[in-house]
Amino acid sequence: MSATKVWLNGALVAAEDAVVPVNNHGLTVGDGMFETMKVVDGTAFAVRRHLARLQRSAHGLGLEVPYGDGALRDAIESTVDANQPDAGWVRVTVTGGAGPGGSSRGSERATVVIQCGAATRWSDAAAVVTVPWPRNERGALAGLKTTSYAENVVARERAAAAGAEEALFGNTVGNLCEGTGSNIFVVRDGRLSTPPLASGCLAGVTRELLLDPVLGLAVVEGDTAMTLLVDVEEAFLTSSTRDVQPVASIDERALPSCPGPMTMAARDAFAALQTRDLDP
Question: Are 28 and 99 contacting, i.e. CB atoms less than 8 angstroms apart?
């Protein structure tokens, strides 16, 4: 679908009229952050958690979001309503606003854009590949949901060239970190684990919900060396638009179980949560 309405700096406008200056820092240097939420039955899912992460990213970047959570929530609802019935996701993007051509910020307030798109169609089970470029778990952007996504684009292109759907990054010490737009859960020796935040991975909202004891999943945060991926019995990816997606293969090695029992348990628990509470 093409969004018919976009919320830009306080007002809903036609998509073709939603323009920002060419010196916007989000465009020139990738200075900004964003949140994408799945739309379920006309309602954005887990808005509270997404807005909390948006503020964490803003703090990490040293940016101020010029609207409070209440105003953003209203804007999200208005944008979804204006793009029904085909809105499958809604995205909030905040950039540093107009600024100089270099890295220094200007004095303009941040730009806020909210837009919708059609639901993403993910495969039933993903082939994934590892890539040679490490995430820097000690970098200034580690764990932040920023618009500086060129590294992810390059990795996804590498995956696509190999016939895969997602790419997996290790970090600088050789441990599994995350995908380009997903968190990763793996099962080894019958134990379900996901990389800890100290690995440099994003604190994914779906990941966060699956770690909540209320879902009853036996999952731990723990490091997995990239060299041990050859022993993974089952695995799955999580993100706000894919929910829980089984992994069929890693670097062309078919996993013994897909979807495995722990993957199915996670998928069922998350689906049940989404059915009973749209803002957990």
Answer: yes
Per DSSP, what are the bridge partners of residue 170? 176
- Write the pLDDT tens digit of every residue in 143-194: 999 999 999 999 999 999 999 999 999 999 999 999 999 999 999 999 999 9
In single-letter form, the type of residue at position 68 comes to G
Handedness of CA 219, 197, 27, 20 (dihedral sign): positive
Q: Which residue has the tokens 């060129």?
A: 150
* DSSP element (H, E) containing 168: strand 166-170
CA 254, 256, 262, 264: dihedral to nearest 10 degrees?
A: 60
**DSSP assignment string, 17-79:** G----TTBHHHHT--EEEEEEEEETTEETTHHHHHHHHHHHHHHHT---SS-HHHHHHHHHHH
81-123 pLDDT, tens per residue? Answer: 999 999 999 999 999 999 888 888 988 899 999 999 999 999 9
How many Å apart are CA 69 and CA 71, to the nearest integer?
Answer: 6
- Tokens 């995908």 correspond to what residue? 179
Residues 6+ apart with CB under 8 A from 59: none
What b/e string do you get for 227-249 counting C-beta neighbours within 10 Å, with b at 16 or more? eebeebbbbbbbbbbbbbbbbbb
Q: Are the CB atoms for 183 and 194 separated by under 8 Å?
A: yes
Q: Which residues contact 74 (CB under 8 A, 6 or more apart)?
A: none
| Distance separating alpha carbons of residues 17 and 38, to the nearest angstrom | 25
Tell me the C-alpha distance between 239 and 144, whole Å: 15
Q: Cα separation of 92 and 132, whole Å?
A: 31
Q: Where are the beta strands (DSSP E) in 203-242?
A: 219-221, 234-239
13: enclosing H helix or E strand:
strand 11-14
* pTM beyond 0.70: yes
